[in-house]
Design a protein that fits this description.
70% of the residues lie in helices and 0% in strands. With 106 residues, it is an all-alpha fold. The longest helix has 20 residues.
């Protein structure tokens, strides 16, 4: 029975739908970013709120100086943490790629 369940196709195929990135999407991400910022103020020793806030800010397209300030705060809150280190350098690489393509903001 286990093999039969594993062989069944998924109920929902997420590849059929593409998320529309409109003003409502940006507003929802803005609320999420604000919520992560509030959580980071309430728990200053917790690095994950800062990290997730920076990820959301990157998705919104926040200017690079503000984004890197967020990421630096994440790295400072979690020195030696691989996730914070990775997010900082992945964001740098993404910014350099966009800069080379002429699509960079800020």
């Amino acid at each position: 029975a286990y093999e039969m369940v594993q062989a069944t196709p998924p109920f929902h195929d997420g590849r059929r739908w593409k998320l529309v990135r409109d003003t409502q999407w940006r507003a929802a991400l803005g609320l999420a970013r604000d919520a992560f910022d509030g959580a980071a103020r309430c728990a200053p020793n917790e690095w994950t709120y800062r990290c997730h806030g920076a990820k959301v800010a990157r998705k919104i397209g926040e200017p690079c100086d503000e984004l890197f300030d967020r990421l630096k705060a994440t790295v400072d809150a979690a020195p030696g943490n691989l996730e914070a280190f990775y997010q900082m350098h992945a964001s740098r690489v993404k910014f350099l790629i966009r800069l080379a393509e002429g699509k960079a903001n800020g």
